[in-house]
Records
---
Amino acid sequence: MNIHNYEKLWLVLAMVMIIGFISTVVYGATAVGIEMVNDEGGTIDSTALEEDDRFAEPRVERVGDNEYEAYVVARQFIFEPDPIEIPANSTLTFYVTSPDVIHGFEVVGTNANAMVIPGEVTELTVELNEPGEYGILCNEYCGGGHHTMEGKLIVQPEDEFEQGGNDE
Amino acid sequence: MSGENTVREIGHDEFDPYGTLALILIYFAILSVMWVFMYFVEFLGNDLTVLA
């Protein structure tokens, strides 16, 4: 088969580009440490959240130096707890589940964005370095009040953060 | 293929579509720049990123 030199050139360039795309994604997954939200959180009985240690009382819990866990229940049409308060420079793991229908859990304007499925626990870890305020919203249509379903994530300056309510 | 209207006949490798080559190179350049922008600026720069 006779392939023109130019044609060889752009075939090779296309291959190089594909390799480039794949390597950037590999770079993101290894060097930067980006993870996909998966089923690691496990399953749960969605009709008995009140019997679960984590979700009976939705809250933020300190689990280590600068490490926090937030147990969040997304239900029609609120997020609990609301607001989620955390000090800056901390690592926060969200555990989110739903007792009713599928919800979305999106920290607005960021890559922290996942689906919340009844019977499943969605687990995602993020790092919060700067103080600030984020909105949280449901991005899966979940019923008549879907458009009002929102919450807040407040990252407080470290020195202003009160531990109150977290170590009962 | 040579008929009365043929002005010049060239072989397979003598045909050099510079214009097409230039267009494709420009297209590849645009794709690369857009990919870098999308991944490194829009995606990686869009904290909070899921890390575990």
---
Amino acid sequence: MGEYILAFFMFRYLRLTLRDTEILSKWDKLLQAGMITSAVLLGVEIIFDSVSQYTTWFSYLLLGYIAYLIYWKAEFSQRKSVFVAVLPFVIVSFLTKITSLTSTEFYQSWEDVYDVAGVFSVIWMIVMLVITNKQNKALAREREKTLQEEKQNKIISQMKADLEVQVVQRTAELTKQKEELQQTLDELKNAQKQLIHSEKMASLGELTAGIAHEIQNPLNFVNNFSEVNKELLEELQEAQTNGDLEAVGDITRDIIENEDKIMHHGKRAEAIVKSMLQHSRTSTGKKEPTDINTLADEYLRLAYHGFRAKDKSFNAIFKTDLAEGLPKISVVAQDIGRVLLNLINNAFQAVKEVEKPEVVVSTRHSAEGIEVSVKDNGPGIPQDIKEKIFQPFFTTKATGKGTGLGLSLSYDIITKGHSGQIAVESKPGEGATFTIKLPKT
Amino acid sequence: MKILVVDDERDIKLLFQQRFRKEIKNGEMDFVFAFSGEEALEFLDQLVHEAVLILSDINMPGMSGLQLLERIKTNYLEPPPVVMMITAYGDAENYAAAQRLGADDFLTKPVDFKALKEKLKTLT
């Protein structure tokens, strides 16, 4: 009887283990048939008690079949532990059955042992089933955990994949942005270059009239002294013919003197043209020994006449206070010229409305180097403007009148280009003084 | 008659001396030179009651030629000096200002010395 119950539950157990899996369909009918067979045979045994000694053998076939399934079919191989639990019971039951049939005497004399073995096999079965059940539960938990982990891993890998896609997208976006920024930067650099150039050209434009005037004066001298010399040479010829040696000497001396003046003014005009050309050309950036006094004087005159050309009524005292014996220092003359021009132009601009306008350019020689200052007696610079005065694009002029780059370029030229310093000193109502300090080396 | 030439270019002195060397030698003309408006006024203070012809540049640092002209015309009335203005900027504005302030003549640089010589000869 117990054998059928066992067979029934074993079939049921195997069927349950396959529940919710795809392989169930393949085995379902067979296992169901096993259950039904076990139940039917159990019923037959209960009803017809006398046939049990024959029908019991079927139960061993059923159990044997279960053993076959468990040991030879991969689908059930994990259920070995359960079978290990029931195996002693099956063996004991089988041996009891056989010996009770074949040798009744032996059976009867050993009946107690059989009974004990039967009890132990049942105990074994129960204990093993409990353990197996526990193990299975633990396994199930483990599996659950593994499943959970796999799920987690799947989610993580999905996230990772998503993240990678995002990273690729972001990288692409950033690269695009970077390229756009680079392009903007290039455009800005170009614009800056153009601005610097137009700033220079604007200051050159301001200068043009002044330059014309400055060139006109020496040219007039050249022409006039040349004409005079021609006359003198004619007189010289005459004196020679007359043999008037004294007159020859006088006239020759005059000619030489005039010739000196012609050369002097010719050079003066040349220097002006040169500085104008230098100013309009892009800086070569080459430092050469330069006489700062000459530079200061030249640009002061240019700036003054430039101003006069624009505003005929403008009149200012402009003075130079140049230190004697100033050593030549290595600078980019064109750049320093721009700075001086800018400072002097600003100074003239500042004194426009002043009663007795005065602009003084002075040079000083110190142990560290050369100092050039441009002083005006204009209205001075308020503190809040003074702070911003060297910033690019800062201008107090009306829109379109100033680029706002003059002083910021000057600042760059002096500090970055020449390792010097530029500073402004001013009190409202007392004018302003810009001072440049240039190191000797 | 003294001719006072006012110009901030110092070589103007030598030029005039050369250009008018014959006249100077003959004693026909007597030139004095001032290199700024202020200096010219000092000269005029020393030359009181002398007949003076003034040739002045307009564009000079400090006191401009026009300012000098104004001062001369308002302060030095006896005998009234003849004032000729010279400028490199031969523009209408300066011309009008010079006229208004009582300039007797207006010359443009570069100076035509032959014409100037004629003018001076008729005036002196």
